[in-house]
Structure formats: C-alpha cells, structure tokens
Design a protein that fits this description.
The protein is α+β, with helices and mostly antiparallel strands and 651 residues long. 19% of the residues lie in helices and 21% in strands.
Length: 651
C-alpha cells in the first residue's frame, strides 16, 4: 500500500497539538532500519585482512618472496594457509607491518603498502570515502597499471553462497567499520581456485576500481567503488534485516532459538526499586527490554514509563468492565506479570514477551504493522491506552475557554525563536501554551511532552535543556497565582506582556489589580488586552494574604530519544541530579542476521554535570565535545516525561 493509504488506516493519535491537528510533517514508517550491530569486533578473533586497492597486476618485485594477497581472508581462517592457495601467476610481495617512510612514496617505486583502517573521511569532492591513512587491517596499494582494460565475460559460477547471496544482493564485509555494497559479480578469475564477489560499495574507497580486476572488467560502476573479496567473507547486510519475510521473524521470536534469552513471569505486584537497590538490579548487559525486529520504539517507551516510575501503575490494576475489549485482561496481565514486574525485580524482559504484546496491538482495527514495521511511540501509546486499556486521558486541556480536550501527551508546535540558543522544557511549554491560549483544566499526574521536531530528522533546536522540575502553576485554570511584581494574588493575565524585557522577559505575566494598573499606564502597554485570571470560587481570603499560594510542580523521570530512526531511553533512578541510566534495547548483537539483540543499561552520571551548566555555556558547547551518552539526551530528545509526586496519589 502507498504511504498515504497506510496513514489513512491508522487510528487518530490522541495528542494535543498547539498548532493544527495531524501527524508530524514527515514520516518514514516503511523505511528499513538498523536492528543492531551484527557483530562485536572486540570479541572475535580477527585474521589479517587484505584486499586489492586497484586490482591491476604489477611486475614481480625482487625485495620479497612472499605472496601478495589481494582478496579478503575469511575471518576465522588461517591467513598463512590462504596465502598458499594463490596461483603462482600472482606477484610475490607482502605488505610491511609499518608504514614506509614518506620518501618511499615516489614515482620511482611502483609498489607501496600502508596499514590502514576503514575510517571515513571526506573526499575532495565532498563525498565520504575510506581514508588510506588509518586502516585497521593491512592492505597493499599498487599504482594503476597502464595496460588497457580487457573486456572479459565473468566465469559462470553457482549463484549465491551459504547465506543465500547472489548477484544483486545487499551485502556487508565484516570489519570495523564494515563495508556495505551490492554484489555485482560472482565468479572465479583465471588462475585462482577461490570464488570471489565483486561489490559496488556505497562509499568511495581509496584504491578501489570501477569494476576491473587485473586488467579485466567484470562489471562497471563509479571509480573507487569496486571491491573484490572472497564470497564466503560476505554476509547479508544486517541493516536491512527487516526486509526478510515477516512471518520468519515472528515465528523465530517464539521458537526454541530464543530459549537462552527467556525472562521470568512474576505474579506479585512489584513497585519500582530506586536508588542503589534499583541500580544494582538494572545495570549491565542483557538488562532492560530485549529488542527484536524494529521494536525499539516500544521497548524504550515501556522502559521509560515503568522501570523507575509507578505513576501509571493504575493502568495495570483496573478490573475489566463490560465496555472493555475481549482481550483487555490478556493485555493487562501480559503487561503486569510478564513485562513490568519482571523488569522491576530481575531487570530484564525478553523479546518474546514484547512480541506477544505486539501481536495484541495488531488486533485493533487499522493498527497493522506492529509486529514488523517501525512505529512511533505516540502510535503505540494511542493504541494501547485508548483502544485496548481505555486509560483515562492523562491531560485535560482547554483552549480559549472552549470545551476541554482529552489527550495522552502534548505535542509542541511553535515557530523558532532565533534569540534563544538552548531552550528549556519549561520555556517551550509556556511559549506553546501562551501562543495558543491554552490552560490545563486539571493538574496532571503524568505529563508526556513531545518535542518540537518534525519526523525523525528535522529538529527545531539543536539542543534542548530537559528541565528537572516543571512548574505548571501559571498554566492551570481555576488556580490561585502570584503577581509577577509584588507576589500577591494575581487577578489579571496579559499575554502581550510575555516578551516584555522590562518585566521578567520570557515569563508568564499575571498581576494583582494595583500592579496591573501601574504596568499598563506605560505608553507602550496602553493598548495591551489583558484578561481576568480564573480563580476558585471558594478560595479562602486569608490564604493568599499570608503567602500561602501553592505551586504545582512536576518532576522529570524519563526522556525518550531518537537518532537515525533508533529509539533509546534515559531514566532517572534517584533524587540526585547525576542519577541517570541509559537504555538501548539493541546495544549489542549475538550472531548475525539470525542472531539476537542484547539490551544494555548503563549508568551515565555525566548527564548531571551538563544539567548544571548555564544555558549560555551549553549553547556555545560543540555537540561533538559532549561526553558519554549526554549528547543524545541534550540533542536527540523526542519525548520528556514528568510526574507529580502529589497528584499521583489521587489519580
């Protein structure tokens, strides 16, 4: 189905948007995504890696008797053995273990060798290529042979290999970082008993050809993009694992293959464990929620909501009512006993449990693709909370005195303020409410705020400061508020005074009767239109006269982030500003395309240091210099989640 048809089948998202109603400006739900690293370079024994940087033949060099290996050895193969398998027709010289002196790279010496790693560097034409100055494996670089290219048809070979690769397959060659490309040719060149694959690489690589090898053309592509390797060194491109048949991944998740990754079932209701106790349970590899087959949006959202917060635990406990869907109890029991409780006690939930939830989500009409496709957290929350569990809306928002609108999260849409380098969540929320004339009809117990960004790529601000505490007092209707000038009971609010630099610029302006009169006597404010503040009818007179105007504050407990279509989570496990954990459901990989993702939870106390910085210092700080995981928190925030310690007792 086309993307437009797919969008029409999806149920509407119950999110309040300050400007307009609808989805984000762009969508990429059907885009293939990375499902995690396919290998751990640090844990495997790497053989020496050799490949041709131009594939042309050269005259034999007298200085060495060893053989020049111009193709990639199998990872687990003995390099010395593979060297002996090459025909004697090939030149006999071996690459040195150290770079030669600079003066050796002259036109007089036709054979050069440099050890280098596949570090991507910008080419002179602006494209990204592999730098020949730092390869982790040894390579041989030969100057181009001036002999004319011979057009020769490739030798016929059996299609594919044990991985099912054939001409046209997307493939990768495991290195650090790996090569990615499309197989354009498979065959056995004359004088060689090894089956090779000719890859057209995604990026240019210094020394690669345009499809020729040893003077013979096997296919045609752009210059510096043709690489010839052993076919058995190729693997299917792990970044596009989602392109394999959907049923296979769903069935495999419930097969015996996942036996070593199963998690427990816990019937007993379990509150989250905080501080040191929670830290000991949760951190490490194989901790958190295991990702599988585009599930990161769901894994990270559940981890944010339940790992260290109980603000939504009522969702897990409400008895079934007659209007609930038939699979209400099944869903609630799965969430409570197989996901939330085991996560809090053992710190781990396997992908099999999450797949069960994903299958239930697809039972909702027009909610297709939850077992296989990329989704957004708001889509997941909408289906789970509204259509299945019938959760009472978390937010009740009124616009300009109109009817209250119910929603589960608040989407910030706003124009960029060029004067602000790094906005805070407090500022963004106030700006959005002021510009759209909104007020909370009730104080929420849980407030989920979606950042001002469109799609997965475009961000309105390069950095956003996640306010640890959110004061929503001035955003509530029927709530006593302080005068911005004298601190007395405010009677009037002026939206036009909001940006006035003479009166606490960037703050919501409300005044008592006396201060309101004085402020609007100024010539530049004479034409301001101010409105009366909505107050409770039974407000005791003595309360505000004795400075007893209460504040409604909320605490940040989790931040959901996204970078290149992959969702991760930051959660706060204690009261200290540095008590942060970073969760990635696909942090590592056990095996290749048919392997398993390994989730990981990591302490990131460095976040606390950046949250102590001034906004000016944070704005001037180069994002590339931000240490550890903190960069993702500050630069890639997608949703910020707040809870009210007092209101959660009543809602």
């Amino acid at each position: 189905l086309s993307e437009s048809v797919t969008q029409e089948r999806r149920p509407p998202k119950l999110a309040f948007m300050s400007r307009g109603v609808g989805d984000k400006g762009s969508s990429s739900h059907n885009k293939p995504k990375a499902t995690g690293s396919t290998s751990d370079p640090g844990n495997r024994n790497r053989s020496e890696l050799f490949y041709t940087l131009n594939g042309s033949s050269v005259d034999s060099q007298p200085q060495s008797k060893s053989k020049n290996t111009w193709y990639i050895d199998e990872v687990a193969e003995d390099p010395a053995k593979s060297l002996t398998e090459i025909s004697t027709d090939f030149d006999r010289s071996s690459p040195p273990l150290q770079p030669p002196p600079v003066n050796s790279l002259s036109t007089e010496n036709r054979f050069h060798s440099l050890p280098f790693s596949l570090t991507k560097m910008p080419n002179t034409n602006g494209s990204i290529g592999h730098s020949p100055l730092s390869l982790s494996a040894q390579s041989v670089m030969e100057e181009l042979n001036t002999a004319p290219v011979q057009e020769s048809p490739p030798l016929a070979m059996p299609p594919g290999n044990s991985h099912g690769l054939e001409v046209g397959s997307l493939a990768e060659v495991k290195e650090n970082p790996p090569f990615y490309g499309v197989i354009r040719w498979i065959g056995q060149p004359p004088g060689l008993n090894e089956v090779l694959a000719g890859l057209e690489l995604e990026d240019e690589c210094a020394g690669c050809t345009d499809g020729t090898f040893r003077g013979t053309r096997y296919f045609t592509c752009a210059l510096k993009k043709a690489l010839f390797v052993k076919l058995k060194s190729c693997r299917p491109d792990s970044r596009f694992a989602s392109l394999q048949p959907v049923s296979n991944q769903i069935e495999r998740c419930n097969s015996l293959a996942f036996g070593g990754y199963l998690s427990e079932v816990v019937e007993e209701n379990t509150p989250p464990k905080m501080e040191k106790e929670g830290l000991e349970i949760m951190i490490g590899k194989k901790k958190g929620i295991q990702g599988h087959y585009n599930s990161c949006y769901l894994d990270s959202t559940l981890f944010c909501l339940f790992a260290f917060s109980s603000v939504l635990d009522t969702v897990l406990l409400r008895p079934k009512e007659k209007n609930d869907v038939e699979y209400y109890s099944e869903t609630q029991e799965l969430l409570r006993t197989e996901i939330v409780n085991p996560l809090r006690i053992y710190g781990y939930v396997c992908a099999t449990k999450i797949m069960k939830l994903r299958k239930i989500l697809e039972k909702v009409e027009a909610a297709s693709g939850f077992t296989s496709e990329e989704k957004d957290p708001e889509e997941f929350l909408n289906i789970l909370f509204h259509h299945i569990l019938r959760v009472e809306p978390l937010l009740k928002i009124r616009s300009a005195g109109q009817k209250v609108q119910d929603c589960y999260f608040y989407q910030i849409f706003m124009e960029k303020n060029e004067k602000v380098g790094v906005p805070t969540i407090q500022q963004l929320l106030e700006w959005s409410f002021i510009n759209s004339n909104l007020k909370f009809a009730e104080a929420p117990s849980c407030l989920i705020i979606q950042m001002p960004r469109f799609g997965k790529d475009f961000k309105l601000f390069k950095k956003i400061f996640p306010s640890l505490e959110l004061n929503i007092t001035d955003l509530l209707e029927d709530t006593p508020r302080q005068c911005r000038i004298c601190g007395g009971l405010a009677m009037y609010e002026c939206r036009e005074c909001y940006d006035d630099p003479d009166i606490s610029a960037g703050k919501i302006k409300q005044f008592c009767k006396t201060c309101n009169t004085q402020v609007h006597l100024h010539p530049k404010r004479l034409n301001h239109k101010y409105n009366p503040v909505s107050l409770p009818k039974d407000l005791p007179d003595w309360d505000w006269r004795h400075g007893c105007i209460p504040c409604q504050k909320m605490e940040l407990f989790a931040v959901l982030c996204i970078e290149t279509s992959h969702y991760v989570a930051f959660v706060k496990y204690g009261k200290d500003d540095s008590a942060w954990l970073f969760f990635d459901s696909m942090a590592d990989r056990d095996g290749g395309q048919n392997g398993f993702n390994i989730p990981q939870v990591t302490p990131c106390p460095e976040v606390g240091e950046y949250l102590k910085m001034s906004l000016e210092d944070l704005h001037s700080l180069d994002s590339r210099r931000i240490q550890g995981c903190a960069r993702r928190l500050l630069c890639d925030a997608y949703m910020c989640m707040y809870q009210s310690p007092t209101m959660s007792l009543y809602k």
